[in-house]
Amino acid sequence: MSVQRAYDRAKAENRAALVGYLPAGFPSYEGAVKAAKAMVEGGCDVIEIGLPYTDPLMDGPTIQDAVHQALTGGIRLADVFRTVEAVAATGVPTLVMTYYNPVDRYGVDRFARDLLSAGGAGLITPDLTPEEGGEWLAAADAYDLDKVFLVALSSTDERIEKITNVCRGFVYAASLMGVTGARTVVDTGAAHLVERTRKFTSLPVGLGLGVGNGAQAAEVAQFADGVIVGSAFIRRLLDAPSEAEGLTAVRELAAELAEGVRR
Predict the structure, then answer these.
(1) Residue 56 belongs to a domain
(2) Which domain holds residue 124?
(3) What would the pLDDT profile of 16-25 be if each residue is shown by its tens digit?
């Protein structure tokens, strides 16, 4: 299933899609695969697999901790593709979220080819601008992959139009100015950002950065097409006394969030 179809199915059910994020290799290669599958079992419609990177500029302390564990555990790019393959086998569309440097170093066309071979749906590229993304845009089109760029609260209408014009799959709306991490409240500008973005595209708009529980998921689902959750899942794994308990906690959180997007 494509990302667009997952969003369309959620819309047909009169709800928002639930998108879950987890870095590959955390808490281990197998642990990440099991956790992502638990997120699917709990109700996630789309999974984002993070590519661990040494300089995660956008990520807050929770994701940084997880990425550090993945890197020190020896995770490699081949393991990221293996993770995508394992998660995509569930039938849920699976994207890779990555800073652009690893893609550039690996070779853009080669990365796109190997991502498609693994069953990946596309890339979310938080630090790539449309002006600098020509090579990736060409490769994504050649291999029929989704291209997900970010719009922010600070984006002008002109900027939003330029970004949405190169997106495919959905548009990622970052709901706060700052790094990732669950918050106690959703930024009051989030709904307005989604509204502004919809003026320029018919693509679904998923909102991320800050959602951590079912009540917040329900709040975001009132105005966004998708609810994106990452740090809250990772926090469940970091806090769990054992891997089994961590998987249970992740599955329970996914179920809570899935119920939230259906309210």
Answers:
(1) yes
(2) 3-258
(3) 999 999 999 9
Q: What is the DSSP string of 164-219?
A: HHH-BS-EEEE-SSS-----SS--TTHHHHHHHHHTS-SS-EEEESS--SHHHHHH
Pair 4, 170: CB distance under 8 Å: yes
CATH number of the domain at 132, please.
3.20.20.70
CA–CA gap between residue 117 and residue 132 (Å, rounded): 25
The reply to whether 59 belongs to the active site is: yes
- The count of domains in the chain is 1
pLDDT in tens, 141-163: 999 999 999 999 999 999 999 99
pLDDT of res. 189 = 87
Indicate which residue of 48, 79, 146, 219 is catalytic. Answer: 48
What the block records as the tokens of 88 is 């995509």
Catalytic residue among 45, 59, 79, 187: 59
